[in-house]
Hints:
Blueprint: E1 8-10, E2 19-22, E3 25-30, H1 39-57, E4 64-71, H2 74-88, E5 96-101, E6 112-119
Parallel strand pairs: 4-5
Antiparallel strand pairs: 1-2, 2-3, 3-6, 4-6
Helix pairs in contact: 1-2
Amino acid sequence: KMSEGDIQRKGTTRRFSDYTVFQGLIHMVEVPTSTEADVKQQTIEVLTSIERMLNEAGSNKSRILNATIYLIDVERDYVAMNEVWDEWVPEGTAPARACVEVSRLANKGYKVEIALVAAKI
Length: 121
């Protein structure tokens, strides 16, 4: 029988956790640290933070199973975001991935947000 104790949470606030871990899977959503930067810089910020949290949770970027990338302007930002993404993801370890355009993210300055699930090592 599962209990609340089976779920690990890190950086938990009233609204969200930085990440959660359940049955060997790490769930996280990350946003940029800057609101004025272009999508390329914001993607670097998001992926840097994701990599740090994955390492902290006992995983790494080669263990990402699924990623959903939210952009506010796919036509303008898709190529630049992918340049950063392609450089960051280790060859041969690309996860299942969706990229969707949304009308707005939680902060008006955000151009990208990434949600993912990764396997622990």
